[in-house]
């Protein structure tokens, strides 16, 4: 029972003595740089949605912001270490990780769909990928919430959202694990039965006169 307070005390002491390895990710300059990235990304997505300017330029700019967001996230993990996962801002850190994962998936699907469209002249599969891409881009708008994290209601909404996502994720992992276990048992039973039948013969039914 005493381990939880001890862990909380140890974390509090770690936060107080946090020493930047390369750059202070808790400082205002790093925070402001993150807000600039969010603002640029929002403008780029708005320009893409409105169809203003060359689409290829906005796509390249969008990919650049995705790479920068990924670098920002990985650098924070490197600087904060385990505090990234258990500190006071762990919900926001998980939220950022989710949005970055969505951005990377969006970039990958965009490249995949463009390759299919150019190679096959545009088919239904490529169109389906573009629909998924548009849905993912809408989810990326959640980045804006990062700039509003000082608002208490926004914090509450994000915490509620993340709590629900964690429950869904745990349930999904549980279902996948159980399905994999049952599938493994079924395959093992089938393979074992097949191997047994190679060496043995099933008993024949007695004939009744």
Automatic annotation (TrEMBL):
Transmembrane segments: 33-52, 94-114, 168-191
Organism: Alexandrium catenella (Red tide dinoflagellate)
Residue ranges of every copy of the Ion transport domain listed in the record: 30-190
Keyword Transmembrane: yes
Record-level Gene Ontology MF annotations: voltage-gated sodium channel activity
Membrane topology reported for the UniProt record: Multi-pass membrane protein
Subcellular location: Membrane
InterPro entries linked to this entry: Ion_trans_dom, VGCC_Ca_Na, Volt_channel_dom_sf
UniProt KW Zinc keyword: no
Broad class of the protein's primary localization: membrane
UniProt KW keywords: Membrane, Transmembrane, Transmembrane helix
GO cellular component terms, A-Z: voltage-gated sodium channel complex
Name of the molecule in the record: Ion transport domain-containing protein
Entry-linked Pfam families: Ion_trans
PANTHER family in the cross-refs: SODIUM CHANNEL PROTEIN 60E, VOLTAGE-GATED CATION CHANNEL CALCIUM AND SODIUM
